[in-house]
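Q: Given only this backbone (289 positions), what sequence would you predict?
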């Protein structure tokens, strides 16, 4: 058994938006981007990890539309990689926190999804992420899965960054108003994941659930999020026009309802993430100066 004092925090997917946010808050962590470690290579993973490590897997194949025509790549990144990490952690006596998604649900919900609600992904991306969850739970008895949704930083091509750009480039913008979720600031999620990591390293009297949900509090449609972005940058929110998903043809049927419940997160003694609108304000202050 290894004490928390000799446990390294290892962040895979460190080059992505969530990985960068985690490393910014935990610069002492071992940061492994795609070029540093191929998580689908068992020998490379076994050579990199040590007994006592705590691995936070932020790596994922996240191109939701492209996944429909590139299923092998999606499953390699979202199932094989987590499976390899889970098996290596189990063999070495390391632990794993794996980040998953609201896309494991079918989107027909009418109340926030709990971690044990039935899954039913409607896309290749969602199916590949659910397969990764199942691999983590099967191969790593100490693994933890954290589902999140609608993650952004505001500065790297995500939805919030795109709305900032379109506000400068167009007079009006049409945004879907029939998909509901919880916009989640990557920095807030990173803080939550690091709090969970500290708990995994120093277990308390109550066991942590295997699956947890973590998003910023509250809910919004993409249209409402876009209006909020315009407001926060000082633009007229009425320049954002509502439309339906049918007006934006896509190979993917995205979940109409993606709100995740943080009840289990809070019950585990973890700090709830703040309201999405407050987080957005901070995010835009940071990127807009």
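A: Predicted residues:
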């Amino acid at each position: 058994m290894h004490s928390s004092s000799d446990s390294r925090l290892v962040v895979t997917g460190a080059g992505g938006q969530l990985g960068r946010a985690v490393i910014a808050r935990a610069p002492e962590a071992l940061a492994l981007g795609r070029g540093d470690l191929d998580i689908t290579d068992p020998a490379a993973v076994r050579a990199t990890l040590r007994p006592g490590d705590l691995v936070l897997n932020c790596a994922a194949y996240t191109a939701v539309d492209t996944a429909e025509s590139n299923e092998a790549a999606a499953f390699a990144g979202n199932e094989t990689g987590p499976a390899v990490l889970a098996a290596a952690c189990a063999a070495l006596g390391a632990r794993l926190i794996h980040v998953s998604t609201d896309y494991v649900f079918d989107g027909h919900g009418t109340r926030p999804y709990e971690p044990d609600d039935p899954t039913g992904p409607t896309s290749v991306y969602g199916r590949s992420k659910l397969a990764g969850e199942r691999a983590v739970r099967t191969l790593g008895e100490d693994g933890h899965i954290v589902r999140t949704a609608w993650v952004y930083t505001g500065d790297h091509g995500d939805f919030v960054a795109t709305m900032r750009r379109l506000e400068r480039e167009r007079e009006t913008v049409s945004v879907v108003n029939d998909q509901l979720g919880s916009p989640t600031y990557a920095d807030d999620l990173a803080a939550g994941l690091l709090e969970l990591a500290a708990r995994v390293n120093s277990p308390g009297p109550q066991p942590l659930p295997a699956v947890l949900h973590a998003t910023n509090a509250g809910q919004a449609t993409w249209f409402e999020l876009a209006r909020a972005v315009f407001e926060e940058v000082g633009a007229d929110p009425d320049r954002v026009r509502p439309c339906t998903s049918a007006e934006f043809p896509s190979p993917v049927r995205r979940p109409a309802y993606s709100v995740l419940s943080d009840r289990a997160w809070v019950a585990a003694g973890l700090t709830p993430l703040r309201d999405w609108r407050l987080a957005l304000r901070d995010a835009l202050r940071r990127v807009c100066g």
